[in-house]
Structure formats: C-alpha cells, structure tokens
Design brief:
The protein has 510 residues and is an all-alpha fold. 65% of the residues lie in helices and 0% in strands. It has 32 helices and no strands. α25 runs parallel beside α28. The radius of gyration is 31 Å and the shape is elongated.
Length: 510
C-alpha cells in the first residue's frame, strides 16, 4: 500500500481509538501490531508516523492496555521517532510516551534505547518553543529524573540544568513538575551541591512564595533535602526573608493543618535543619512562638516530632534555651511530649531537656513543671539512647535536696543500679553523676547496697546531646550528623541534711 492509503487507514483507526470501546477493540483485535508494521514500513512519511503515534497515544490513555502496547513493540517505535524534525510528529510521539512514562518497563526501554539524550535535546533545542512538544518532552524528562534507574542518565545528559530552567518557566504546572524532579534528585545527598551550582536556589526561593500550594510544597521539599548538607545551611538560611517566609507559611496554614500537612512537615524540617548551623540559629529562633503553637496544637505525630527537633536544635543555644525555660506553655508541652507513647517523640523531648537542664534556672522550672517523673520513667525504657539522655538531664536538675528526694521517691535508684552496671561504657558514664548525687542522700549502710566494698563512684564529664538534622524528605536517607552540646553545669555540694535509708530496690524505708 502507498503511504497515502496507509495514512488514511491510520486516520480511521485513530478515530476508533477516541472511545474506550474502540481502544479495547483495537487492543483485543491485534491492531497495534499492524500500526507498528505500517509505521515502520513508511518511516519517512510524516503523515503515517504521526497518525500511528497518535493511535498509540490514545490507546495508552487506559492503563489496562499498557501490556499490549509494550508487547506489540509500540514503545520501540516511539523511541525511534524522538529525533523527528516535524513538530506534529514529535508532539504526537512525545505525547504517546508521556501517557506511558509511569510504567517502569517503558522507562527501562527508553533508557535501554539511549533516548534520554534525545529527550533532553528536545527540551533544550528549537522545539522547546513549540508548546505541545515542550509540554510532553519536559514531562518525560521530569518523570525520568525522579526514578532511580533513569536518574543517572538524566544527570549525565545535562538534565539538571534543564530541570532548573523548567522550574523558572511561566506556568505553575511547570513550576511544580520541575520542583518535584529536583525534590527527588536532592534526596540523594550527592546531588545537592550540583543542584545549587546549576542555579536552582534563586528559582526555588521564588517558588516557596508561589500562589500555588502544590508548588510551595515541592519547592520546600527541595529545601528540606538541601538543608541537610552542612555546606549549604548558612547559604540557604542567610537568604533575605526566607526563614520569615517559612514561618509565614506555617501561620497561613494553621487554620487547616491536615489539609496542608505535607507542606507544614517539610517547612518544619527545613527550619530544623537550618537551626543546626550557628549562623542561622537566632534567625530561626525569631519564630519560636510559631514553633511552640505548632507543637501545642499538633495532633499528628510526624508534625510533633519534627517540631520537637526544631526546638531541640534551637535549645542548643544558651540564650534561646533561657527564653524557652521562661515560657511555661512550651515547658508544659515538652513535659507532655516526654510522656508520649511514641519513642521518637520521647527522644526529642528528652534531648531538649538535656540542653535546657544546663541553664542555671532549669532545676526549679523543670521540677515545678513535673519533668522529673517522666524522666525517671524513661530510665526504664528499652532504648539505651533514651535512658542515657534521661540520666544526663536528671543529673543536671537534681542538685537540691528536694529534687533528689523526689527522684528517690519515684524509684530512680532502683533503675540506676542496673544501668550503672551496664556493659555499655556510655551508659555507665551517663548514670555516674545522677548515682553520685542521689547516693549522697542515703546512709553509708544503704549506700553499700549499691556499691561493692571499697568502690567509689567518680564524677564524669557529660557525653553528647545529639544535634542532628531532621528526617530528610522524599526518598532521602536519615542523616547521622551530630554536634556536641554545651558543657554541663557542675553539681554543687549539698547543704547538710538528714541522710536517708533505702532498701535493696532503691526505695525509701519507712
């Protein structure tokens, strides 16, 4: 058959593919194999190729036909025409692939046939000025960028710069697509610096203030990932108005927190990561009231945990910690979090108490807020990290006779007895101070219950209060960085007072 007659045949099949019944008939009747054969036989006829690729694109509208499309060789045909110079052919071809790109087998075929480069060429070449061609080709590029098996090929073909440019185009759809791709790329820490070097930051800063909530989400997601990297924290945090914009977003979405849950979570994680860098800390602390309100009003564990991490990182600074201690509502919220059933939330609150406990006014404030009871309870946790941090916090806020009595009455000595004999050196170190402090309240006879003959408990330096980045967004790995906390306040010598008798379990004898 001539190209003209084949073109007419393809037009007829294309009309059939406009309805769901027609698409099903084409698939079940084996017509897709015919379409591929005709298009290959007349590969130089733009009319035949265009009509053939439009048939495939229409059939691809229904996911149920994807296997038939793949098995008939349609994807290979589409790959072969990604270098077409005719705008109509290229638009139809890229559009058909765009309908199929969510299928992992299709993506694998595209990569195997070396088509990532041609797709990048379409996005960056003369065809980018053709709206339909660019729309389809850019969607192929962003979709390939978010998948692990094709991501490296996108980067190797200069796709990163194209994605940044895609973010900067003039429609919210492109903004969201480009930022979505960058959010997934930035989940791999190795891509963070290249993303910045590609000029992404100015574009992303603008997108955070977009009128579109979905664009805001994707842009903020990128920052939640980028801000994990130490070299980028100061640069991102120093951008004029950025921290303020993040807090403004939290306030703006506070009336409907569940509807904006993902955006709020990535915003808080970004702030928590920025607060790790000392140059950002006071700037981030300017929104402490908003952070506190978020924690107090939160009914979601992930939001509470991320907000607590933000507060932990801010509490690393002595001046900010003092401000926190003066806020009764915040301290009450931290005590409540310390009693949570979720270990991750307990851990954040205990880490915060470790830092707050170094303040000279911490003991009276935290005791009045009821912090000792949950900390003593956490000494019995199955988590060694929690036990260790709770021991440090208790050692710093049990310097008075009143606080020591309370800790002993709550059974702290009973738990510390086993912790002090732990095989873990860190655990023994963490329990040394609090044991030394509490045992100063008991009689020599009672002290022998806890110490072997001729043994003494020596004071020790406090260990670490981890100051780590919040959990990364998207498919990111959880970082493991940490920083040393401030040196602890020395435990002063007690005023003289009557000594106590305790039994072998560490309980007061009546």
């Amino acid at each position: 058959p001539t190209a003209a007659s084949c073109a007419n045949l393809m037009r007829g099949l294309k009309k059939l593919a406009l309805s769901a019944e027609g698409r099903r008939a084409l698939t079940q009747g084996g017509a897709l194999v015919l379409v591929v054969e005709v298009a290959r036989a007349h590969s130089t006829s733009n009319s035949v190729v265009e009509q053939s690729t439009r048939i495939i694109g229409n059939v691809a509208i229904d996911p149920e036909h994807e296997d038939a499309i793949i098995q008939s060789g349609c994807v290979q045909l589409l790959c072969a025409h990604l270098t077409a110079t005719d705008p109509s052919v290229l638009s139809a071809d890229a559009g058909a692939l765009a309908n199929l790109i969510s299928n992992p087998t299709v993506r694998s075929i595209i990569v195997a046939h070396g088509c990532v480069g041609p797709i990048c060429n379409v996005v960056s070449g003369p065809m980018k000025d053709r709206p339909e061609v660019y729309k389809h080709a850019s969607w192929l590029l962003t979709s390939l960028a978010v998948e692990h098996e094709s991501r490296a090929h996108v980067l190797a073909n200069g796709g990163l710069q194209l994605l940044v440019a895609h973010c900067a185009r003039d429609t919210p759809q492109f903004h969201e697509e480009g930022a979505w791709a960058l959010a997934n790329l930035s989940a791999d820490v190795r891509n963070a610096i290249p993303i910045v070097e590609a000029g992404a930051l100015p574009v992303l800063f603008a997108l955070v203030n977009s009128d579109s909530a979905s664009v805001q989400l994707q842009a903020t997601w990128v920052f939640a990932n980028l801000s994990v990297v130490d070299e980028l924290k100061a640069q991102i945090g120093a951008h004029d108005g950025f921290v303020e914009a993040l807090y403004a977003g939290l306030e703006r979405t506070a009336h409907a927190p569940d509807a904006h849950r993902a955006l709020r979570l990535q915003t808080i994680r970004t702030l928590a990561n920025l607060a790790v860098d000392v140059s950002n800390r006071h700037r981030v602390a300017s929104g402490l009231q908003t952070a506190k309100d978020t924690l107090v009003r939160s009914n979601r564990d992930d939001i509470a945990q991320a907000t607590l991490r933000l507060i932990v990182n801010l509490s690393y600074d002595p001046q900010i910690a003092s401000t926190m201690l003066a806020d009764g509502v915040l301290v009450e919220a931290l005590v409540k979090a310390c009693s949570s059933d979720l270990e991750a939330i307990q851990q954040e609150s205990v880490l915060c108490f470790v830092n707050l406990s170094l303040d000279e006014h911490a003991e009276s404030t935290l005791i009045a807020a009821g912090a000792i009871a949950p900390l003593v309870t956490i000494l019995q946790s199955s988590s060694q990290v929690l036990q260790e941090q709770a021991a440090w916090a208790l050692s710093n806020i049990t310097t008075s006779r009143e606080s020591k009595m309370l800790a002993i009455e709550l059974g702290a000595l009973h738990t510390l007895k086993s912790l002090h004999r732990s095989s873990s050196g860190q655990m023994r170190q963490a329990s040394t101070k609090i044991m030394n402090s509490l045992l100063s309240m008991v009689t020599p006879q009672s002290r022998k219950v806890f110490l072997p003959a001729n043994a003494t408990i020596r004071d020790s330096h406090r260990g670490r209060s981890p100051l780590v980045d919040s959990a990364r967004a998207s498919s990111a790995r959880r970082p493991g960085g940490s920083a040393l906390a401030r040196s602890p306040v020395p435990i002063p010598q007690d005023d003289a007072g009557a000594m106590l008798d305790v039994d072998a379990d560490g309980h007061l004898q009546q």
